[in-house]
Amino acid sequence: MIQRIQTIWTFLAVLAAVFLFITGQDVIISESLPVLNVLCVILVLIGLLSVFSYKNRKRQILLNNVSIIINVLLVGILIYWLLNLSGGIQIPEKGIEPIFPLIAIVCLFIANMYIKKDERLVKSVDRLR
């Protein structure tokens, strides 16, 4: 069902990827990081597939885990970009881009927690029959 709490958390992770795509455009213009756009689009597609595969909880957990791995990769790329970026306190060029994958990772962990909780509930009901 779409109205479950894990769907909301997964959708928040998708929104974080969309915000990263929007705010990451200046990163791509200033640096040549086209992989950032590609990973953001992949994250949005995986997230939406996870949201709409609510009947198959194991697939939903797998898709969320893949999304977590991609987000960790994005955090690494963006931290590397920030460390190599010129500027500092005097010239504030550094953005908030690494925050969005971190928010997505937390949201996906919480979504996986609720999906596993639903899975345990379904198994316990099946045992009673």
From TrEMBL:
It holds the Pfam family DUF4293. Keywords: Membrane, Transmembrane, Transmembrane helix. It comes from the Bacteria. The keyword Transmembrane applies. The chain crosses the membrane at residues 7-29, 35-54, 61-83, 95-115. This is DUF4293 domain-containing protein. It comes from Chryseobacterium cheonjiense. The lineage of its organism: Bacteria, Pseudomonadati, Bacteroidota, Flavobacteriia, Flavobacteriales.
